[in-house]
Amino acid sequence: MALLAFTLAACTSLPKPIEGASADAFSRIGRFAITVNEESGKQNAVQGGFSWSDDGRRYVLDLTNPLGSTEARVEGTPGAASLTKADGTRLVADNPDALAEDALGSSMPVSGLRDWLRGKLPADPEATDVNRDELGRPVAFEQGGWRAKLSRYDAKGPQLLVLERQESGRRILVRLVVNQS
Hints:
CATH class: Mainly Beta
Helix content: 10-25%
Strand content: over 45%
Radius of gyration: 15 Å
Number of domains: 1
Number of helices: 3
Number of strands: 11
Distance between the termini: 27 Å
Strand order of the largest sheet: 6-5-4-3-2-1-11-10-9-8-7
Order of helices and strands: HEEEEEEHHEEEEE
CATH superfamily: Lipoprotein localisation LolA/LolB/LppX
Mean pLDDT: 84
């Protein structure tokens, strides 16, 4: 659960802009809660903060614990992703989803989050059961094994993302609340 939190959380200060950022650069800051319910009745829950800075090609996700201490940094570019923990340990993979799978032993929608935080649906894998609001923004859909609900849109995207995944023997619920753009 701790590594799951490290993969989705970040600091509460404003993210530093990525040098040479393009016009589609964005940043989002907020908090998260992850709950894993096992078939056995056991429940694990973690929470913390996240800070996402993205220039459209490269992103940096800083992860914090509830007290605000940085626990890890996830960085990604096309064809590469890395996770550096506070103790200096580093994991690398070809993409953020493979990195999450290696670190957690379970799928996490890291690459999907990049688009979902902007209120967009990535092309691959194809989203199904898509519901949109009156402005055409996605508010509910299934993609990559995740059922997602996006709401409270501002100019940059949704401020509330609720993601749910049913796996063999457990249900994962991820809640992201954006506090700052």
